[in-house]
Amino acid sequence: MNPRNTSALGLLEDPISNHSTAFSDLDRSRLGLRGLLPYAVESPEQQARRAYAAYGDQPSDLARHINLRALQDNNETLFYRLLRDHVEEMLPIVYTPTVAEACQHFSRIYRRPRGLFVAYPDREHLREILRNRPHRDVDVIVVTDGQRILGIGDQGIGGMGIPIGKLSLYTALGGIDPARTLPIVLDVGTDNPQLLADPVYLGWRHPRIDGEDYDAFIEQFVAAVEAELPGTLLQWEDFATPHALPILERYRDRLLTFNDDIQGTAAVAMAALTAGCRISGTPLTEQRVVMLGAGSAGIGVCEQIVRAMTAAGLSEQAARGNIYVVDIHGLLTTDRTDLDPAQRLLAHDPGDVPATTDKPPALADVVAAVHPTALLGLSTATGAFTEQIVRAMAGHCPRPIIMPLSNPTSRSEAAPQNLLDWTDGRALIATGSPFPPVQYAGREVPIAQCNNVYVFPGIGLGVTAVHATRVSDAMMTAAAEAVAGCVDAHAAVPALLPERTRLQETATAVARAAARAAVADALAPKLDDEQIDQAVDATSWKAVYQDLEPHS
């Protein structure tokens, strides 16, 4: 007699294989599980109802997040069944904004390992670490170094909550097989003094490495991924601005990779802007855009708008002339010496906007002079879109498009209720964090959340389905157009993005569009549209229990 039934226990301890109380009587006998589970056999529907009741009993959003993570670590099929059934309710719990709090408390709420922890002191063992991954075949990696977690900054190893949450949505919405996903945190230390002083912090207690040492470590990591997991989609997540764009530029033509904070944010913002153009009746080429925030995400959005404007017929010079970027010091102008190369491409001549002081024009100066039709924010500057600024904009624009995109909710540039009040209900709004519908003039106005979840699950599904070798700008543009195409521009109260109840449908549309763009650019094997659609459908994983064979 085996003193420990390791094969049966292994099934119950593996969240991919575990059916828990849904194992049938026959399976319990066949797989050596009899007596290891309560006697009752539940259907998946009964399991989901019981799990949802337990979720509802939790006292706070963080407790609900912990509850769902525990379920995910126990039974992934049930977790994804529950998440898909309640996606609109649970999306803010699994991901933004609640995941920010989970990252802050990561070391305290840590229960079971998930993914890979790649620490700088282990840099000579990176291929060994990747070989220790839980599952051999991987379609999607999400990696972070934890330095710029949402709007809350350096969370060190706590940033692992982001890849875990993000990959949950790749599966729930994009249909990526959870057994083929891999969350990774690069533990390069932390400059957060609270974490360094925290006795329960689980990461490497060391100031962040930077400069040449950091770049060399990233290169070692990428080389290890290329060697151990060639052809896997590598998504960079929540890297600080000084690293995010250089990493993307260094590797985007070398392997299948993208940065969601730059390219995903840009694509979904572009989708909302495109929908806003259709609703307002003002074509994209006539839009005057003011962006508050000159970090990697803000610059990425602006470059996506430039590409879309040039595709619509404008010259690149004219497109860049329609976009005004403002940072903490004021308008980006060519006489400033503090701009990086990407920012300098969007800088205006100093005389384009008159300044009221000896400093570069502030946001209010730019709005007053430019009369923008679209005002976007990726600044994490709470309340930066003031009543004065918004009223000035609305005075020159019948349907102002206003998009306070910063995360989390506490860092939003404006509240939707105020934006509607200050524009007499005329504003077309998309936010970065979730806001409930707003009441205005006796009607309920839905507030679109400009969340990258509209784009990245479909990108993952599309590139996986057609075996794409790169993620191109054309694929992201196609994704933006696909999202905008799912918006009902003629609704009685139109929104700038599809309803969250249509997220899975939108992900499929994005996957097909991105896959077509990959094939068109010869970045994937040649397939016709019908073959692409079939490949996307065949690749999409379903939250259904699979038959299991007994372990020998």
Structural class computed from helices and strand pairing: alpha/beta
Whole-Å distance between the termini?
A: 14 Å
Determine the fraction of residues in helical runs and give it as a percent range.
Answer: 40-55%
Detail the poorly predicted runs. Answer: none
Q: Assign the CATH superfamily of the largest domain.
A: NAD(P)-binding Rossmann-like Domain
The structural domain count equals 4
Keywords: Metal-binding, NAD, Oxidoreductase
Binding site for a divalent metal cation: 237-238, 261
Domain Malic enzyme NAD-binding: 262-519
Cofactor: Mn(2+); Mg(2+)
Describe the structure.
The protein is of the alpha/beta class. It folds into 4 domains: 94 residues, Hemocyanin, N-terminal domain (Up-down Bundle), CATH 1.20.1370.30; 160 residues, Malic enzyme, N-terminal domain (Rossmann fold, 3-Layer(aba) Sandwich); 188 residues, 3-Layer(aba) Sandwich (Rossmann fold); 85 residues, no CATH class. The protein is 44% helix and 10% strand. The strands form 3 sheets. It has a 7-stranded mixed β-sheet, sandwiched between helices. A 5-stranded parallel β-sheet has the order 1-3-2-4-5, with helices on both faces. A two-stranded antiparallel sheet has the order 12-13. Strand 7 and strand 8 form a beta hairpin. Helix 3 runs antiparallel to helix 4 and helix 3 crosses helix 5. The longest helix has 21 residues. The radius of gyration is 24 Å and the shape is globular. 51% of the residues are buried. The model has no long low-confidence stretch (mean pLDDT 95). InterPro entries: Aminoacid_DH-like_N_sf (IPR046346), Malic_N_dom (IPR012301), Malic_N_dom_sf (IPR037062), Malic_NAD-bd (IPR012302), Malic_OxRdtase (IPR001891), NAD(P)-bd_dom_sf (IPR036291). One of its GO terms (biological process) is malate metabolic process. Its cofactor is Mn(2+); Mg(2+). One of its GO terms (molecular function) is metal ion binding. It holds the Pfam family malic.
